[in-house]
Every structure is written in C-alpha cells, then in structure tokens.
Amino acid sequence: MNALSSRLPLARVLLLAATLCVGPAFARGPAPVVAPGHAGIVGLHEAYLSPGYWIARQAEPDRVILDRASIAAQNARMRQLDGSIHDLRALPATLARDFVREKIDAISHLPPRTLYDVQGNEVGAAQLRAISDNLALDRIPASRPLQYGLVVHRAALRAVPTGLRVFSGRGDTDIDRFQESALFPGDAVAVLHESADGDWLFVASERYVAWIEKRFVGIGDATQVFGYGAHGPYRVITGATAFTAYTPEEPRLSRLQLDMGVRVPVLADWPPLQPVNGQQGHAGHVIQLPARNDDGSLALLPALLPRSQDSSDDYLPLTPRNLVTQAFKFLGERYGWGHAYDTRDCSGFVSEVYRSFGVLLPRNTSAQAVSPALDRLAFGDKDGKARRDAAVDALQVGDLVYIPGHVMLTLGHADGMAWMIHDTSGGSWFGADGKRVPAHLNGVSVTPLQPMMASDTASYVDRITNIQRIRPRTAK
Q1: Which of 227, 249, 265 is the last residue of a domain?
Q2: Is-annotated flag, keyword Protease (predicted)?
Q3: pTM over 0.90
Q4: The domain that contains 340 carries what CATH number?
C-alpha cells in the first residue's frame, strides 16, 4: 500500500453519516424506556455530569493502561498497519501527475444533490463550475518537486478549494458539505498542488489529504519541517483549548488557538529577562511556533503560553482517571462537523482526548472503526441481542463504540446501563407514550447507550458495528 492510500470519498462519508437517521431492515426489539432525568435527558442525573462521579466508580482509577513505551509501540503499529495514516517522509521527491490527480479525485467531489448557501439560496451551476475550475486539474504538471510546510494557524481542510459553506437543505447550516477536517499549528504537510486562484494548497498531512488556505502554511525544507518539535522539552496542551498571550508586536502569534494534544517545543535556554514579543516571560512558558513570512516561507518564532493555560510538560499518563478528566473538558462544547466552529465532531473529539496521551488515531469514524492497529470487536447483521448485550456489559472506560457515522467514548456503567460521553449532532429515545423523543443535543453530551435510538425501529445497540479498545494487545 502506498504512502497516501485513498480514503473514503466524501460522498461515502456523507452516506455513512446519513445512516444515523435511517433504520435497518431488521430490529431486535425495542430499546428500554427510561424516564427522562436532569434537563430532560433520558436517565440522566446531575451527578453524572461530573467527572468525579465516574472516576469514583473505577476500581483502579490510576492504573496505567498503556505506558509510554507501549504507546510508542501502538503508534508504530498504527503507522504500519492503517492505510489512513500517511507517511510524508516516504513520498517521492518528485510527484508525478497521475499520483497527484488520483489524490485530488479521491476527495474533490461536487455532490450531485442541490446545495444551498448559508442564506438559503441555491448554489448555482456557475458557482459550482467556478469551484471545479479552481481545482486547476489541467495545470497539474507532468512532474513537480515535493514541498513541505508547517501549519501556522488552526485551519479548515476542505474537499474543494473554496471557503463557500454549502448545505443539503435551507436552514440547516451546521453540516457544511465541503468541510472535511482541520489542521493545527505545527502540523506537518506535504504540498501536492495549488488552486487556480493561488489561494489554496492541496496538501497531505499524517491523517488527511485535502485543501487548505495557503495563508496558513509556511513552506520550509524537510529538515525544518520534520525537525520542528522533534526534541524536548515540550508543552502538551491538556485543556480543550489553550491560547498564546496577546501580542501586538507579533500578530501572527497573538491569541493563537492550540487544541488538546498539540505539542509545542519549549525554548528552555531563553534569557530570563529578555522579553518575548514585548512581555517578560516569567508567568508563561517560552515556546516556539511556526509562522508564515510574506513570501510564504516558514519562520520559527518565540511566543508565550501563559501558565494559566492548561498544559503539561509531557503527554499525560493513560489512566482511567485521566481519560474521564480529559473527555469532560469538552463537555458542552458545540458540535462542529469536520472541526468547524473552531470545535470538533465525534471522531475529532475522541482523537483529541487520546492525543493528550500521545495516542495516534485515524481521523474519520469510518477508518477508526475498522483500524487493524487497535483491539477490535466487530459486529454484523447476524450478531444477535445476546452477543451485543454481553459486549455492552463488558465495556470499560475509554472503549470506543461505533455505529454508522458516529463514535462514543465509554465512561462506565450506572443504573444497569452503559454510559457514553460523545460529541453528537442529534440523539433520540422513546418516551413513556411510546413515541420517539428527538433531542438536538448538538454538542459533547453524556447519555446512556441502551435507550438511544438511531430510528423508530433500531437502537444504537442494534447498530453497533465495532468496539475499539486501546489497551495492551494481550488483554481480552
């Protein structure tokens, strides 16, 4: 398998997401009817919204699930076995036209359905044609030298080179059909192509291939790019987000958002009394961040990360206590399809939680759910209620539960049910009157698993496709 194996095309990803709202042709019996609890959410008690409640239910909350050496081995296995993970260093120094065209064709689709803009206006054929023309497919040279860069600002990854947000229906402006993911400051990319208007780059990162605005990438040589942050000391962002100090002297690094798990190098030898962008650094950590010069080249500059921001000098130990604590730091954050709204979606949520421990996961649910690098328990149409119920009863904190288009992280068990924390755009369950109650949760939420319904006829338990476990390979 080559270094940039094709991922699922956008249309397939959208189909998977859509299946959340469509029941299968079979059903295994009704989900349990559970009374509404706190804030009207099924079965919820206010205490369940505290990480301390779930930590207290752990027999060994400080047990190390994987130590640093085991995590390094797990990540090496992920890079070796999972085709959705891309080895940028293995790319050829010269890119052939067919190679570049294949990667663009794998993601840059214009959906056949009618699309609407944020004002509810139909996106016309002329607009779509202009977007298609901006792919500049006819300008892909027979060969081009490979370029590397570092991302300098949290930036959207797009299916096509446009900032136009498009939607499947009028008034539904949360799920932008051109939005794919996001990259973060310090992420390395390989540049494969440029848009016709010169404003976008088609890039490969370790976990994704898509379009990014050129203004968010600083171009450097391989030594600069892969050497950035290769050696400590570091700060690892352990809050949901952290921000650099405001600085009018260096606007490129002012109030820069750093998301959970981002690791930045520390300039340990910075002179104590020398200001950093106009501010003495005793109340912060002097870190190094990438920036883009006016000519597009990469610069590595000092910045201040205030000590008030949630960060650590290394990745956190992977323990039940820390898993719950890290997940709850996102509680209530707005759902952001494809990392829109400067937030994240369901697979981004679990990825960032595990990234704070240094664990690498694929970006999309479709890849996470079947990754051969994890301890996977798969389910099919022939798996009956007994096997599914037994698996749910055996869930442990941190286990990832997948249904089509969605992933949830296990907190534990209470009231005879498994409880999940997940970043979800919807959610529903049956009320006492037998009717399905839709809940526009639209954010990181705590819910039980068993009562949740994917449709009128299928529960989430019915729809489980995989359970993935991040734990020692010998554990069963």
Answers
A1: 227
A2: yes
A3: yes
A4: 3.90.1720.10
